[in-house]
Amino acid sequence: MRIRVLGVAAGGGFPQWNCACPNCRDVRGGDTALKPMLQSSLAISPNEKDWYLVNAGPDVSRQIETFSALHAGPGIRETPLAGVILTDAELDHSIGLLSLREGSHLTIYGTETVRKCLDTSFPVIPMLKNYCSWEWQTLAPDVKERIGDSILIETVPVSRKPPLYAKSDNEESEGVWEVGLLFQNERSGKCVAYFPTLDTVTSEIESALHKADILLVDGTFWSEDELVSLGATKRNARDMGHLPISGPSGIIEKLASFSAERKILIHINNSNPILKKGSKESELLKHHGIEIAYEGMEVEV
User: Fold this and answer.
1) Residues 84, 100: contact at Cβ < 8 Å?
2) What is the CATH architecture assignment of 2-300?
3) Cα(111)–Cα(72) distance, integer angstroms
4) b/e 223-235 (16+ beta carbons within 10 angstroms → b)
5) 142: number of Cβ within 10 Å
């Protein structure tokens, strides 16, 4: 099983470390070594031939261009993309489905709550039905789904908070909106955990993380008040559905109890100082044996 990181950035937020515009270069002291990042996404393959995207954001076309294994051809409308696996219905994880409308056939995997949302509040499925052949495959926490001939997907509930565009008067709604995923290679028996958003570590999430040989987890914010201190929002990290990396009960502290071979942070907001090479924050992560994902990073299990 081969996994490639196509993008690292969290959606939205306040542009700072990784933005190329003049205003943001000023904010970061003129450091031009920091480059813009693409939205958080993975490509996974069981056989080096068929590939599945994990989330499809607004950068999906650029991400496909940067990875030759995803290039179309040689036949007309032939593509190695076999499907898209969604962790939620957020725009930065699903809007790229519209850019994939010219594919010959794709299977979309997600929870039933996400399917209903993409059929109504953000009607991607009805919009696509006349463009290409699509099949929906529901992911449920109590059922393992196989992709290809050797990868098992286990779905782990993370949050019941809907996207802002689908939000009702109730802060939470019925059904699972956000999930983490376990990808197990049936041949090797090894497992990768992907949790791009974490606002708490439940016993179920903890159990899933203990199963994994490689962890790819939420690295959105360094501190609880990161965006508040920048004047970008009044909501702190946990209000936005993310455990901060630092501080009591933060990601660093949580990851200490897991014995995975590699611990990697992904889904990183552009305000996060770990993106600045040599920063005290990035050095602290190194001290704790925690890696920072980058575009083009690959893992095999």
Assistant:
1) yes
2) 4-Layer Sandwich (3.60)
3) 28
4) bbebbeeeebeee
5) 6
Structure tokens that stand for 113 in this block: 């709550």
Residues 6+ apart with CB under 8 A from 39: 7, 9, 11, 55, 57, 58, 59, 92, 93
Instruction: Say which amino acid occupies 239.
Output: D
pTM for the model: 0.90
E strands in the chain: 2-7, 41-45, 51-54, 81-85, 105-110, 133-138, 145-147, 151-159, 178-185, 191-195, 214-218, 262-266, 290-292, 298-300
Residue pLDDT, tens place only, 263-299: 999 999 989 999 998 999 999 999 999 999 999 999 9
Domain ranges of the chain: 2-300
Please tell me the distance from the alpha carbon of residue 78 to that of residue 61, in angstroms, as a whole number. Answer: 16
Widest CA span in the chain: 54
SS3 209: helix
